[in-house]
Amino acid sequence: MNIKLILFSTFSIFSSAALYAQQLQLNQLSLPKGFSIDVYAGNVDGARQLTIDDQGVVFVGSRGEGKVYALMPNASKTKAKKVITLLSGLNYPNGVSFHEGKLYVGELDQVSMYKLSRTTNTIKASPNGVIGSFPNKRWHGYKYIKFSPEGKLYTAVGMPCNTCFYRDTQPIFGTIVKINATDDIEIMARGIRNSVGFDWQPKSGSLWFTDNGQDMLGDDTPPDELNRISYKGEDFGFPYVYGDNVPAPDYIGKPIPKNLTKPEHKFQAHVAPLGMTFYTGGQFPKPYQNQMLISQHGSWNRTTPVGYRIMLVTLNGSKITQVKPFISGWLGDKNQVLGRPVDILNMPDGSILISDDYANAVYRVSYQNAHSLSHQNK
User: Fold this and answer.
1) Between 40 and 168, where is the model more confident?
2) Which domain holds residue 62?
């Protein structure tokens, strides 16, 4: 385990180095040999989804603060030299995605475009229209947005409840959708309770997504899920079933639709899998390349807390061969919560960033033999 703390003293927006180190306690985290985790930016309140533009500026959505942040990189682009509040007063702007020169922001009720203007030390955003409108429901309404390899914007629309049925009256709930044009919204998959993370597998182009299971069924039921979409309109079973198509309590003995898709992997109940990405860089060793990294945000309603870590999911084609922790330790001694990872972002240099909405921070994870690896991969 190789842990470093990169702390900030240049800008007044950061707390003192000693205080910030004490708050984050990164020395408690465990990583595979050769990996290091540093603070990329601090004081990013409620840091959620991450995206990066073509000049290395990282944008961060938030859940409870109504703000979108811009992290201005230092010369080496290994940490933020400045944190800017780019937008404020928004409706839970969890989702952010940069595409073809514009910033897209996913709020509870809409996805909007923004034009960006820059100077040497700052950046500003101006509204450029709404491209998708959605129900203004806070419960599982936090939007995760991402562009597909074909350049289409996708988002998930969670169920506005713990367990409920809206399919006949409001079919937009419990779906993953594609936004083809302004308010031209196409349902790609349904039967999804609460997905706050998805990505496309390199080469195959398959869309994988995380899904959070129902609460209040006990410590170990139901499992959280990792799923893969194989065809348009695929049904993943919520609210009828969970896990390997086990009937949910409200539907035992009642008609259940046929041809429901089982999860590719069942996580432990309540680990709360959120943001995910396929690692596409060349800095990490070969066993990590084109494999999946998933944030487990951590449980809030389990007797013994679980999650609070980053998982590595290894695939051979579409078959999962191994699921194991990559970074753990945000759940400390005596179940003390030190952080709650949310999203993961590939960086141009092959490192990754991780957002943490509990510690209000963004971390950078790198591999110490990056130079030799990059040379070998050329």
Assistant:
1) 40
2) 17-376
